[in-house]
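User: Hey, my collaborator sent me this sequence without any context and asked if I could get a structure. I don't really work with proteins. Can you help?
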Amino acid sequence: MTTEKLKIGLDVDGVLADVIHTWIGYNNKIRKPISKEEISEWDFWKHHKIDKYDFYKELSLCWQRWTKIPSTEENLSKSTSILSNIGEVDIVTAREESTHIYVKSWLLSQKITYKNYVGVLEGLEKTNLDYDVFIDDSPLNAKSMLDAGKSVILYNQPWNLSFNDPRAKRIYQLKDAISIIKTLMQET
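Assistant: No problem. I've predicted the 3D structure and written it out in structure-token form, which is a compact way to encode the shape of the chain:
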């Protein structure tokens, strides 16, 4: 077994922060109401007649009220602390640049442990970054990363349920990534 730590790229939206919950509250005030379970694919906005750019703009607006964004689960700080002890964890997030300050404030408030914060404009850009394993919820990102030979841990969400690539390891809680990463470390 190697003593070198694996480099872990940890996503925010949909993995740590349940921003879609906040967005749904916003959406349901201005459009036909939808539930999280109805968001059954990554580009769900097409089926709900929502402009893609409006959706991403609205997500950015939700981040301006970062104190209202819940975490995806309890004990994330404990899980990220353990992950940081076994690997080098960086936050790797795709978003509009103006939201970085809000995301960093949210991470601090949630006591999320990480080494570096890396922001990109488009999710697929993550594939080109130097990480041994990514923890993400996007099926598009997961496919791109897997096709590039990267390890992917897919955080279970309604919009990625139809993604069935056996190369990705699916988790239902962040703590489930710990044993997967320990196994990856033994394999390297």
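In plain terms: The two ends are 7 Å apart (CA to CA). You can pass these tokens on to your collaborator as they are.
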